[in-house]
Amino acid sequence: MQKGEEYKNTGIEIGLYTLGDMGSDPLTSKPISAGQRIKEIMEAAQLADEAGLDVFGVGEHHRLDYATSAVPVVLAAIAQITKRIKLTSATTVLSTVDPVRLFEDYATLDLVSDGRAEIIAGRGAFVESFPLFGYDLHDYDALFSENIELFLKLNENERVSWNGRFRSPLRNAEIAPRPLQGQIPIWVGVGGSPESAARAGRLGVGMALVILGGEPIRFKPLIDLYRKTGSEAGHDLEKLKVGVTGHGYISKTTQQAKDEFYPYYSNYWSYVNRQRGMTSGRISKSDFEQMTGPNTALFVGSPQQIAEKILQQYELFGHQRFMAQIDIGGVPFKKITEGIELLATEVAPIVRRETSKAKNEQVV
User: Fold this and answer.
1) Which homologous superfamily is 13-363 in?
2) Which tens digit of pLDDT belongs to each residue from 19-39?
3) Which residues pair with 121 in a beta bridge?
4) pLDDT tens, position by position, 54-95
5) Most exposed: 11, 16, 78, 307, by fewest CB within 10 Å?
6) Are strands 92-93 and 117-122 parallel, antiparallel or unpaired?
7) Helix H or strand E segment including 72
8) Residue 4: which pLDDT band, with cuts at 50, 70 and 90?
9) CB-based burial label for 338 (10 Å; 0-12, 13-18, 19+)
10) Which domain of life does this protein belong to (predicted)?
């Protein structure tokens, strides 16, 4: 697809997300500043938009080794240099943000972007935001439950009256501004928790499933549970959307992709494990070879290999969206831009064509 070319996508949506980690390049030991990282994220989003990808996500962390703590600000900046790509958090740590402020921020983003704002909400794999914003980690799940229920109410009503446990009551409060879309699309990020999958279904929101490795079939029970719970709660199955997210790296051949990505992927897990207080070292080359096998969920390979993996998952899940994280471990920005081009011009056309066919066959 050429830059600026219009298309009508009837297959699944394909996009990218970043967490803004600031790992040094393991081959050069060259560090990156927060300012440069954010500039590169903005440039990547602009390239993804111009190349015809569907969605771009930015994740939230509150650490010195991550650049994107104020996600709505970054997305608003991206909105000014893009035209059509959807802009989502990936994820918002909903347990430690006031739902009213969150709604106002994303409703404003929706207006700024002409109706492209979305939210993926989660409880957070990192917990530094709890003490930072004055919340008790013991309320980890209760905060999330209360905040998402309040957010959904704010999303539906211009005036809200509400009582809860963790914040002051609302008495016929005006909830402004209202988003251009009418309501802000919201998804719940789900790792491996059946409780999270069931909650997303019960609430009737989208489910963004994080699959970072292993065999994808292990996650099918979560999707089945999500749809079953949603249907039992009275929600239209057509509106229960599933997104799949995962790590990826694309190069001209699968072997080249593996050779290039290995030092960065090993570096990524080395510093992420340290951040989590774990002592495990780098990934061995043999373990990496197994992790990138054709039947695994790690999207490393040629465009054809990546397309085949996405389509294998589509056969299992019937999902509506795929998002890849390709900027981890200190991967040089030049390689990231090359990956975006390959995803948009070689992977996406195959996936869109084949998933469009599958949808048409289901209709017939």
Assistant:
1) Luciferase-like domain (3.20.20.30)
2) 999 999 999 999 999 999 999
3) 92, 188
4) 999 999 999 999 999 999 999 999 999 999 999 999 999 999
5) 11
6) parallel
7) helix 71-79
8) very low
9) middle
10) Bacteria
**CA separation for the pair 34, 311 (Å, rounded):** 36
Euclidean distance between CA atoms 2 and 349, whole angstroms = 12
Name the 3-class secondary structure at 267: helix
CA distance 121 to 144: 9
What's the rounded Cα separation, in Å, for the pair 252 and 37? 26
Q: How many alpha carbons lie under 13 Å from residue 128 in its C-beta half-sphere? A: 12
Q: What is the pTM of this model?
A: 0.95
List C-alpha distances in Å: 219 to 91, 214, 317: 19, 10, 9
**Cβ burial, residue 65 (10 Å; 0-12/13-18/19+):** middle
Residue 351 burial class via C-beta count within 10 angstroms: exposed 0-12, middle 13-18, buried 19 and up: buried
Give me the helices (H) in 206-345, please: 220-232, 254-275, 285-291, 303-317, 333-342
Per DSSP, 275 falls in state H
How far apart, in whole angstroms, are the C-alpha atoms of residue 147 and residue 120? 13
The two structure tokens encoding residue 158: 């211009």
pLDDT (average), residues 158-180: 97
| 3-class secondary-structure state, position 113 | coil
Q: Which amino acid appears at position 283 of this protein?
A: I
The reported pLDDT for the residue numbered 177 is 98
Q: Are 219 and 145 in contact (CB under 8 A)?
A: no
At 358, list the tokens: 């599958």
HSE at residue 187, side-chain half, CA atoms within 13 A, is 27
Closest CA to 330 of 256, 258, 253, 266: 266
- Amino acid (one-letter) located at 184: I
Q: What is the phi/psi pair of residue 321, to 5°?
A: -155, 140
The 8-class DSSP code of residue 117 comes to E
Rounded Cα distance between 281 and 270, Å, is 6
Q: What token pair was written down for 266? A: 């090993």
The DSSP call for residue 179 is P
Encode pLDDT of 344-356 as tens digits. 999 999 999 999 9
